[in-house]
Amino acid sequence: MEVVNRYVVIKHHVDGAPTEADLEVREATARWAPGSGQVMVRNRFLSIDPYQLNRMKRSSASHLAVNGIVPGESITAYAAGEVVASDCDEYKEGDLVAGMLGWEDYTLFRPSPGMLMSKIDAGGDGFPLSHHLSALGTSGMTAYAGLFEVGKPEKGEKVFVSAASGSVGSLVGQFAKLAGCYVVGCAGSQVKVNLLKEKLGFDDAFNYKEEPDLKSALKRYFPDGIDIYYENVGGEMLEAALANMNTYGRVAVSGVMSEYTGSGRRAVPNMEQVIYKRITIRGFLAWDFLAKFDEFNAVIGDWIRQGKVQVLEDVSDGLDSVPSAFAALFRGDNIGKKLVKLA
Ligand SMILES: NC(=O)c1ccc[n+]([C@@H]2O[C@H](COP(=O)([O-])OP(=O)(O)OC[C@H]3O[C@@H](n4cnc5c(N)ncnc54)[C@H](OP(=O)(O)O)[C@@H]3O)[C@@H](O)[C@H]2O)c1
């Protein structure tokens, strides 16, 4: 089987904030052959994730965990689609899958143990395919693992979430409410702040761009201190959160958006605060919890069915929209999970 495959590349390494012009769409023939042991997937939804920027850099600590992206070469990415040809018993033509595929129309993969690929029960689970890249995909896994396995919330504890209207943050806040916590989120616009309070049930929320002094802003929202900080942005926000943490507070470091582009300043945590308040700061990767993926998903799926968790998705159309969709993440243009839908 031979198809014309359109795929996204970076033209060169990207070391600052990404622009649409850093990426382009190319095309080549993709071939699947019987006896190859390969599966060919026609991608339907592509996941647009901030961590891809770190892969695009010439050098980044992220390369310790995931390969850097080579200019001109196709880009592996989380995606969901339909099997169109298969040379292995596990996958049949017509199966729906979500896992590590690519920013492209078609992806070939060879099944191997430990790879991130799940078969989706078409029609059986009742969820749209896109949810398997958002709340039931890596965003859900990141939010669930970071909050429950790293943050370990107790009922009544105070939780602060940054980038709270984003894909991961919007889930963290809702999960923390379900755990009986008091939850405040920050986001970059009034529209986002209203959404957190009115639709997602956050106890409070604020626009960090309108706060000249983040330390005193957090003091206002947490007069009794923060027990868990779910960290998505880094920089001054981390410093301000540490200054407001309670003794034995936990910081679950999921990401540092403001530091990825190199335009903001890096956090300089006050380590005396960390010592004397016995604060735990722990970085983690969603992949660390891959073995619990199905367990987390069962819980999250039930919450969605019961209407206890709202899934926010922000969908652009067509492969040509990947460059703008990706750059938009770093301007805060998205609300919820940024996805690209392919024809
Ligand atoms: N550890 C893991 O395994 C793992 C897995 C997935 C994601 N993550 C991390 O989780 C975080 C959120 O990822 P996501 O996929 O859910 O993306 P997202 O939150 O849906 O989108 C990124 C958001 O970050 C905010 N932002 C952008 N630049 C910022 C800046 N300079 N300062 C503060 N906020 C900024 C924007 O919202 P505002 O309008 O609020 O600024 C934007 O909407 C990222 O740091 C990501 O790297 C970690």
Automatic annotation (TrEMBL):
InterPro entries xrefs: ADH-like_C, ADH_N_2, ER, GroES-like_sf, MDR_fam, NAD(P)-bd_dom_sf
The organism's place on the tree of life at top rank: Eukaryota
Entry keywords, A to Z: Oxidoreductase
Keyword RNA-binding carried by entry: no
Domain Enoyl reductase (ER): 16-340
Pfam families linked: ADH_N_2, ADH_zinc_N
SUPFAM superfamilies: GroES-like, NAD(P)-binding Rossmann-fold domains
Any GO MF annotation of the entry: oxidoreductase activity, acting on the CH-CH group of donors, NAD or NADP as acceptor
Oligomeric form and interacting partners: Homodimer.
PANTHER family assigned to the protein according to its UniProt record, in alphabetical order: OS06G0602900 PROTEIN (PTHR43205:SF12), PROSTAGLANDIN REDUCTASE (PTHR43205)
Protein name, per record: Enoyl reductase (ER) domain-containing protein
Native organism: Eleusine coracana subsp. coracana
Lineage: Eukaryota, Viridiplantae, Streptophyta, Embryophyta, Tracheophyta
